[in-house]
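User: structure tokens for this one?
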Amino acid sequence: MAAREKSASLMAAAMQDHFMRSLKVDISASGRIRTRKPKVKKQEELCSLMDDKQDKADKEDLSLAQKLGLVPAPPSKLTREEWMSVAERSRQGAGVLLSGRELKLLLRRGRQDSCNDCAICRESFRADAQVILSCSHVFHQDCLASFERFAGAKSCPLCRMKNYEKRLFEDGRRNWEKVCAVKLQAVWRGHAGRKIFNHLVETVVPTDPEKRRQFYYKRMEKLSARLFSALDAERDQDLDDLFRESELALQFSRGVFGHSAGAGCGGVGERRRGEEVDWEMVEARALQRDEQDCAICLCDLGGPSKKKVLTSCSHLFHANCLESFERFSSAMAEVDSLCPCCRSKYEKRFY
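Assistant:
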């Protein structure tokens, strides 16, 4: 009688311990009841290694009720053949209770968990790491690890199966690669088809009179646009060549007339007159004046990076501005260009 009472007390204590373990309730020495905090375990890189360690920990951490056989122990580890059947069940959706219409759709295309979204984050699997559970449900590896840390126990987020196993699953990555390949092929085929179609539209003459008229109209429009663009380019090139020849002829005539005028009056030619300029004194006067802006464009003269011209009357200008001013003066039929500031004849050199 005492042994029977002792056995009943042991079984009652074992069941009470099992229930408290399931509810994660911890009774300290002080008698206060508190919820046991789940142990946060570091996530291993490979699910197979993590599952082996978890199985050993479960067997070592069995409750007294499980050791006495009062409560079923966790299931044994699945074999490779069983894992293959689990993966096939995830692809085909076997063992799922559905309505008649849903069952027809399922038999037509299968469950295909890897082709759908992750049930935790509701995002596509893409090329991210995914795991399959022993209950044939598929999730992101990171999402399932976060769910386990939050729940504090191994329970499937969909079917609530406890003490499951998990393995790496590659179907999601393969499906994503297939989708990307199909999209690339579709883009290329569309480009090739449009290219062939446009070539046929531009080369094949329609048999319908109205469409033939539109065809020749578009053809002549393209030819006219191409001809006008070629003429514009040639005209711009011819104008540039004409201006360049005019500038060269004008410079040559200025040199000839300047030399003859200097020799006729007993003076010195243009070159000697340039040599007589005391450029050091001219530069000193320009520095003393300290001009900051160009008198032609009214912009800053700038630093050494901008080309500047110093005239014999000690004025500073941008080289491009003075060149444009000289071309304008020659176009206005002026024999000699005068300084824009003091209106005197000048010689120039780069500053």
